[in-house]
Amino acid sequence: MMSPTGEVHIEQLLGRRVRDIDGAVVGRVEELCADVINGETVVTEIHLGAAALWERLGGFALHLPFVRFLPIARYEHRIPWSLVDLSDPENPRVLQPRAKLRRVRIDQD
């Protein structure tokens, strides 16, 4: 998956299971966020977990009255790109324990 230049195609990261530094599963990559910095598009963070999938598929649905009663995960992990280890792109890792990672409630963001 990694090119000879060390580049990774981000679309191939979607759905990959991410583990923390201790080997515990944090979640699957559901969304990548990017900003333009000095004229270049740079990935700044990734969102992991089932709630991130809901966010990607249409977070507006979570605001519908009947949806709030469904057992839907409402939290996701947001990981700064600087904490992502892609030395093995097929098995991405986060360089911190899961307990220290930022967890966000998606319908209050």
Number of helices, where a helix is a run of at least 4 consecutive DSSP H or I residues: 1
Low-confidence stretches: none
Q: Fill in the CATH topology.
A: SH3 type barrels
Helix content: under 10%
**Average pLDDT rating:** 81
Q: What would CATH call the architecture? A: Roll
Strand content: 35-45%
Going across the major beta sheet, what is the strand order?
Answer: 1-2-3-4-7
Order of helices and strands: EEEHEEEE
What is the CATH homologous superfamily assignment? PRC-barrel domain
Q: Based on DSSP secondary structure assignment, what is the total number of beta strands? A: 7
Please tell me what the overall shape is.
globular
* Biggest sheet architecture: 5 strands, antiparallel
- Find the structural class using helix and strand composition: mainly beta
CATH class: Mainly Beta
Please give the radius of gyration in angstroms: 15 Å
Q: How many domain units?
A: 1
Distance between the termini: 33 Å
Structural account:
With 109 residues, the protein is mainly beta. The chain has one domain: PRC-barrel domain (SH3 type barrels, Roll), CATH 2.30.30. It is 8% helix and 36% strand. It contains one helix and seven strands. The strands form two sheets. A five-stranded antiparallel β-sheet has the order 1-2-3-4-7. Strand 2 and strand 3 form a beta hairpin. The longest helix is centred in the middle third of the chain and has 9 residues, at 50-58. The chain is globular. The termini are far apart.
